[in-house]
Amino acid sequence: MRRFKHALGVWACALLVLPLGNSARASILVAKTTNPANGHDYYLLNQSTWTAAESEAVSMGGHLATVRNAQENTFIYNTFAPHVPPPTGTLHHWLAIGLKEFDDQSGWFWRSGEPFVYSNWDPTQPDNNAGFNENLGGIALPPLPPGLWHDVREDRPTVDLGWGVVEVIPEPTTATAALVALSLTALARSRRRTGDSPAPL
Predict the structure, then answer these.
(1) C-alpha dihedral, 121 to 42 to 25 to 164, nearest 10°
(2) CA distances in angstroms from 123 to 45, 54, 82, 152, listed in the order given
(3) Which candidate, 123, 118, 124, places its Cα nearest to that of 97?
(4) d(Cα 97, Cα 62) in Å, to the nearest integer?
(5) pLDDT (tens digit per residue) in 85-100
(6) For 109-126, what is each residue's pLDDT tens digit?
(7) What's residue 159's pLDDT?
(8) Once rounded to an integer, what is the mean pLDDT over residues 41-63?
(9) Given 3.30.70.100, 3.40.50.300, 3.10.100.10, 3.10.129.10, which CATH number is that of 28-171?
(10) Are the C-beta atoms of 51 and 1 separated by less than 8 Å?
(11) Pairing of strands 92-101, 160-168
(12) Which of 101, 146, 153, 159 has the fewest CB atoms within 10 Å, measured from its CB?
């Protein structure tokens, strides 16, 4: 009996130290939702810090969402806002996107590396509220003006709570890649033929 208990204890300890195969996806709150307008896949994570959410997004093959236009902003808000619980007291809830301020506060950039060409700031934002160095961007949820962006800070859990929106851009399928290659080959041949033809008189 003692040997059995000892073996059971060793087995239990081994389970505790084994890596969990699905740990990278353990914090997903809403599963893959594809935006038909751009073909990108989006997920909603459970509440966490912005840094933890971005790390999770990278492990999933993407980043926190880049918002390129009004359609994408509306899609993200309408798809995921209903899944975030309403705030209580003085809390503000927001959808964390991949927007971050440069360290020298000279502007904003997307973690995906795409150019920052579209914004949807609330007219009062970004405001670095009360000098708190709010260097992250989020899509506001009620009671703040819904769908507009606010600058936020991740280390104020008594004020700001974020739910990360992950964006993963699917790799092109083999068929799509082959079609693109054929199109480029045909275009190159067409240009060579045009270049070889005699100039009109």
Answers:
(1) 10
(2) 28, 26, 24, 15
(3) 118
(4) 12
(5) 999 887 889 999 999 9
(6) 999 999 999 999 999 888
(7) 82
(8) 96
(9) 3.10.100.10
(10) no
(11) parallel
(12) 146
DSSP codes joined into one string, the chain: -HHHHHHHHHHHHHHHHSPPTTGGGTTEEEEEEE-TTT--EEEEEEEE-HHHHHHHHHHTTSEEPP--SHHHHHHHHHHHGGGSPPP-TT-EEEEEEEEEE-TTSS-EEETT--------B-TT-S--GGG----EEEEE-TTS-TT-EEEE-TT-TTTEEEEEEEEE-PPPPHHHHHHHHHHHHHHHHHHHHHHHSPPP-
pTM confidence score: 0.73
What mean pLDDT value characterizes the chain? 81
Count CB-CB contacts under 10 A for residue 174.
Answer: 8
